[in-house]
Amino acid sequence: MKTKKAMSHKDKTFLAMIIPVVVLFFAFNTLPLIKGAIYSFTNYRGYGSYDWVGFRNYIDLFTDIRVGNSYLFTFKYAIAGTILVNVLSLMLAIGLCSKIRCKSFLRGVYFVPNILGGLIVGYIFSFIFTYILPAAGEALNIGFLQNSILADERYAWIGVLIVGVWQAAAMNTIIYISGIQTVPADIYEAGMIDGANAWQTFRKLTLPMLMPFVSINLVLSTKNLLMVFDQIMSLTKGGPAQSTESISYLIYKNGMDGGQFGFQSANAVLFFVVIVTISIIQMKLTSRKEEQL
Amino acid sequence: MKKKGVKGTNWVLTVILLICCLTVFFPLYMTVIIAFKQPSEMTNNVAGALAFPSSWSFSNFAEAMEVTDFWHSLGNSLLITVIAIAGAIILHSIGGYAIGRNMTKKKGYRWIYYYIVSGMFVPFAILMMPLVKQTAQLGIANRAGVILLYIVFYMPINIMLYTGYLKNIPLAMEEAAEIDGATTWVAFKKVIFPMMKPMHATVAVLTALGTWNDVMTPLVIMSGTGQTTLPLAQLNFQTQFGTNYNLAFASYLLALIPILIFYVVCQKQIIGGIANGAVKG
User: Which fold has domain A65-292?
Assistant: First the structure.
């Protein structure tokens, strides 16, 4: 009897602990999510009165050229970015885990881009793309560099990509380093005795052991790159000719100021579904690879 | 690579990695140089932007501080980040504890865990517009609202980290305290909370980096208050900087210095904290 009473008291304490957390999360995450979904069925402009429009916004999403272009840009950016970020940071992590000098200094330096804010980094790189690179192109007589890549519809996305990768690679490198450190050293010794070369060691030993970290990094970097906003804000503001308008930026711009609250809510719901779907696929694919081990 | 490594220092790799550091140092070097120059020194070639200034003057910084109301923005950034971290550590460790100790036996807590952790995939873009309305209705379209939102936004990752870390802390720890007559609260406060210290560091680092550099949340939530954070000030004063890049870069450098100092001082804890989060998560 006594123990039962003590148990229920304990359960009450646990409830008292969890309820504020759940209430807060519901009020400022789930509730706005539901509200956003409701607005997506209206023609609300952000002010004044509005009507229900059913699935009209969702149908319009698929015919809206500007929305289509923002998805094209964001995917192009996220796919190229995820590949570049993961290849670069894996190479960097392996390098930083080898027998090198100044190891802690180097690791410290390569993490710096991640602690700096995307907006300010964007402004700094904007100057490099607009003034330094063209001046260097002029001096070295390299044709395609002589104009700012940010001013060119075809290349502006590459400028945004360089900045995004520069920042994201830092975080992924640290995660890969901590992954490499979990691989026991005797595995490599066994590999060496079997006469494996550097590539074979990496392909057959390091990479399979790192699969859980590849999985984390793929999901993390794809998700963050898909949500790109700060760099767009400071580098291109979506231009030139809307060629670098990311989904987040379009939702912000037209939803908040452009009188498309309802329509952009539908866009946001679609964006949410896209992110969840991609993340689930990535986790499924990489976890299958882990099992094959 | 590995073969050579076993024998001794891999000098080739060391040199390559040191050279590649330039990709990090170059933008920072350029920022410092331009921040100290006068507009008249900015000629139209590479040297004009990258050579040392003729005299190292702090006048740009003084002007930038005035234009962007630097101390005020810095104060706001510090206030928001520090309270958000404290709130996150307290609230999320309590939540993580309640979930971690119950989720194996009770379905409800397991559902709560998945419910909160799945919030990681909700992009801010979908919450943004409803949250602007909601915070305005509640009268918290200000710094307090931004802090509250950060505590909610970092809940999924932090709860996941705390819950995961709790698996390393044996139940016997708090049972011993409870036999001595401590309540669950006291056992948590006196025994478990101090034992979660490595995770507090990770949570603090992740929350700090995210909130300190965030632009979007203060941009949409606090726009009506006239208050700014450090990054937001750079955005708001773009038009004032005009084509005076020296003034703009002095302002950028001022905005970067606090986090750079913090990083240099706490580098080990920051990198360790993130590595810890990756392994445990």
Answer: MetI-like fold (1.10.3720)
